[in-house]
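re the bet — no i am not wrong, look at it urself. input seq straight from the record:
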Amino acid sequence: TETLPEFDEKWDNICRIRANVSLSSSYVPRCSALFISPFFIIETICVSYFTIEFLLRFISTPSYYRFITSLLNWTDLAAIVPYYVFLCVQLTDRKIDLNASTFIILRLLRLFRFLRVFKIYLIFHRLKSLRVLSATLKESFMDFTIMIVALTLVAFLFGAATYFAEKDTDRESFDSIFSATYWAILTITSVG
């Protein structure tokens, strides 16, 4: 929900408004609204858990070489670090001069937060039933691809036919072949 437009930058803007700072400024003042927001509290709890789990895995690893060379461990670290960078920037309460390289680095760190999704891979890797599902999908990949191609072809054909049949009577629902194709995909997959 943090990515919804109504929540995007909401807490930073509240802090800027309280401090009477221009919204176009790169300065984000420290204020309590940021630290009591539900997003910050939930993120703090989750990142704390991930950090403790990462540190315990690092401490108890039998081979530090394998731990350091593992891509999943680097993914975990890259998902944890942006939170601490954000926290340091907020707690130092300093103006950040957003030149091009700093802006790119901050955006890249924000994208690294997405890497938390790859934690699902660890769960996928541990459960036997999910490994069986994965093996089944690998074995039937060609059949699945043929089904997707056939579904797409049929959806485009029915979408185009529906558009030409309904364009004079229902111009609002079928204003283009793409919307008619979307309707055909929904109809084929839900009813058919």
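see?? DSSP finds ten helices and no strands in the chain. told u. also The two ends are 33 Å apart (CA to CA). so pay up
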